[in-house]
Amino acid sequence: MFDRSGVQPGKRSRVLTQKGFHNELVNKTKAFNKETKKLQSAIDKLYETFNNAENVGITEALKSVMLGKDVFENVVLSLRELSALDRWGESTEVKDTVNSTAAKFLQATDEAIHEAKRRLHLADEIIHAAGCKTTTSSVETSIRSGSHSSLKSERRKALADAAAAKEQAEYEMIIAGKINERKQLEAKEEHRRLTEKAQYEHDVAILEAKKTEAIAKAKLDAIEQSITDDEIKSHGDRSKTQTDIKKEQTAAWLNDLAPDEIETTSTGTHRTLSSPQVSPDLPPTDRPPAMQPTPNSQQHTVQQSSDICQRVGLMSAANERLSSTLARLSLPKCHPDIFSGDSTMFHPWKTAFKGMLENCGVVPSNEINYLHIYTSGLPQKLWIATVEDNTIIQKIY
Prior knowledge:
By secondary structure, the chain is mainly α.
């Protein structure tokens, strides 16, 4: 059992989408055209039977027309029910065309059925009159009436054919226009979808690039912060232990002094500290009351002055040697990493290398040697080539 909407009770109704509705409308429209042609063909065959003088085959043709009428009415009813579900306005023009065409065809069908029934009823009357021995004049009158009705039916048939062809052409034009509009709408939707997809891919690519840049920047900031913290810690440790390092370096330098320098220094000091000898043979009564300058005392004073100058010179030379030694040896404990040619690590390595040599009094030749120690790979090969070129230039000039 089904209700008037064609849905079986107890089952959930199906909601059509716009595309599904469009496809259903096209299918039912094709069915409507097909049944229209069948009904028109059945009407034509019925009118052809009217041309026979004996009205042979009217009953069969009439049954075919009535059956075609029932199918046609069912198709029209299904189209009207589908139009009631239209939420997009696609069946507005189609509905008007279907209603007008259906009305005309149903009217032509009713006229053909009425004419066929009239002819059958007339034939029954003629047969009944012949059985009752009617007059010849009444039979001729009925024949003339039948001929007049046949001409009238042919005229109606021609008019119905022309109207049906016109309506069918208009209906096909409307359907073609709807199909064209639908295709244009689908093309616009496809273009919009491709545009949105391209914009999405572009935005994703930009975000990926920004993410890579942010990651690289974060790594660089972390490296620089780590290097800065290490330098601060290294300077703090170096300031705390600078006095102890100088004491150890001074003791090491004193241990490395030549024995002749130590002997010279000790001899001069001994002569400086020694006092002039007084002869014990002289009696106290024979000494003069006051010290008078003698040639020996003047010679002793000159010798003492020369010893003082010699000691001052040795002390100044020792201070200069100690200062230069401390300047060469007072490098920090924190050393830079070995640079292998990575461009992203060049600036942190350069900062660490300069910080190591800062305030250390390192001569340029020693700085070049340090470059050889703290490089590897291609940078070290470049250093070797540069040193060899400088050596060749020095030999030439």
